[in-house]
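Board notes (copied after class):
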Amino acid sequence: MMAVKTSLHANHLPDNLHGIRTAIENAVPHGRTDNGGKNDRGAWSDAPAHHLGVWAKMEPAYQAIIEKYPKLNHVQRVNHLGTLDTGNHFIEVCLGDEHHKSYSTQYAYDIYLKKWILPRWRSYRLSEVKAVDVKSGLKTLPLARGSRAKIRNLMSALFSHAI
């Protein structure tokens, strides 16, 4: 996923977003047909020049992965770059000020809270939770360092707003 901040404000948008959605759907390939093959409508028939340039930078790392896991190689790899394809690829338009999080961020925070924070910390009072306990508790989570860092930052925000 990638989030891009724009200068859009609510007064820049129409009351009905159907036209914007239609324009996005016309500009960005989406869906899946032809079993993801040559005629897949969810892929570029000819990838744009910019995408080819980006792919040229990514391809060495891709080839290293393919050497280790050849079954992951796909003929349409370049033509799916920058598309909505299928699955959890999406475009989200959010409005709000600097203090509001996008829906996808709120959703991720909700998962972190329900799956990782509340099961471990719900029975504690704030005054009982010590930084050293949080740090050692985070180390035991079967997650990547980046995910543990996000949970730590979320807990820090919770403490900051609770005090």
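Comment from the instructor: The first helix runs from residue 18 to 27. The chain has two domains: 1-99, 103-162.
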